[in-house]
Amino acid sequence: MNPQETYWSVLARLLWPALAGLALGAAVAILWDRDTLYAVLGGGVLVAALVTYLAREGRLHLAEQALELGQKGDTLLSPMAREVLAHLPDPLMLLDTSGRVLFANASMHTVIGVAPENKHVSLMVRTPQVLEAIELTGETGESRDFEFVSPVPVTRHYQAHTALLAGRPPVTMLVLHDLTAIKRSEQMRADFVANASHELRTPLAAVSGFIDTLKGHARDDPKARDRFLDIMSVEAGRMRRLIEDLLSLTRIELNEHVRPSGKVSLEAILREALAALSPLAQIDRITLELNAAPGLPPVVGDRDELVQLFQNLIHNAIKYGREDGHVWVSVQPVGAASGRGAQAMLATTIKDDGEGIAADAIPRLTERFYRVDVKRSREKGGTGLGLAIVKHIVNRHQGRLSIESRKGEGSTFTILLPATPADAAVT
């Protein structure tokens, strides 16, 4: 049987045996001079046999069509073509006329998060613009080129192309090109210029003013000169820290959509961060304490970024804690959250016993340049970028950040990062 035939073509092809059977029955009845009743009964028997035969053929044909649908993705491409498409860096998907996925390469699997073969595209792709383009291309054969944004889990920008490939049956192709790095570069340049020009204006004006003063009436005043030079040194240090944090934030945001691949020990990172910050804690007589659960698995992450993340959080706990106070750092495994792709996590908490944070300020803590107490932040050498850096590092590592605080009771920052198998190699 030709697999391209429809059920009705099968019926048409098998209709002639029915006609021949009826004619033969009528001829036999006439020659034997039987009653019309016998002729009708004979024809009915033949028709019943024919209907049974046709039903059987129809069921076989439908079964063949179902089998063909399941095997189409395998027979559509030659092994060489499948291998080439599988290794393309751009996500690619092939669909039949009903929107069912016949083939998707490894890059598309990464974008979607699941193996989509033999599933309808609407079950994996939630962007209406993409679904409309696929449907329009399948119906009219018209190719489409457009850009769209995928907001979760991290905002990504794509350029999509759909086209109808000639064949029997025709196949719709969807190709995505990731524009995230380009878009982020453009936005980072604009943000850097805007932020640098705004935040550097005040310390630069102060330094310029003191220079003019030293060149003028304070030229021969040693006490004023020393005082002004000390202030200039503080303002210059502030500008240096601000530029360093802006550059660091720019680098992190630029790669936020690229998940790190290294495997690192979280306990080792925390010990390194605590060792680096212990001299600052000793100045205010603050005790640093680490409590790590035994046998912790590693996490997938960038070592340098995670060190920066926890140094920022611990440094904040030291800066805004009370003298003769305490900073508690703990890390322990937690169960996997529900949902697709759920996995075990490591929870790291940094708790201080400082003044705490007002509830209405907590949602804004990770905004750029937001400070709860501007004067105190600048006195402590803060740039207003530390928690923004923390937020973007957590996003890149597909983790979660939560903040709990009450006025007068200190603050607790919790970082959840995905864990890896305990036997994975650690760097």
Please explain how this structure is put together:
The structure is a single chain. The protein is an alpha+beta fold and about 425 residues long. The protein has four domains: about 5-70; about 80-180, PAS domain (Beta-Lactamase, 2-Layer Sandwich), CATH 3.30.450.20; about 180-260, Helix Hairpins; about 260-425, Heat Shock Protein 90, CATH 3.30.565.10. Helices cover about 50% and strands about 15% of the residues. It has helices at about 5-15, 15-30, 35-75, 80-85, 105-110, 130-140, 180-200, 200-215, 220-255, 265-285, 305-320, 375-380, 385-395, and strands spanning about 90-95, 100-105, 145-150, 155-165, 170-180, 265, 285-290, 300, 325-335, 345-350, 400-405, 410-420. The strands form three sheets. Strands 2-1-5-4-3 form a five-stranded antiparallel β-sheet, with helices on both faces. Strands 7-9-10-12-11 form a five-stranded mixed β-sheet. Strands 6-8 form a two-stranded antiparallel ribbon. Strand 11 and strand 12 (about 410-420) form a beta hairpin. Helix 2 packs antiparallel against helix 3 (about 35-75). The chain is elongated, with a radius of gyration of 36 Å.
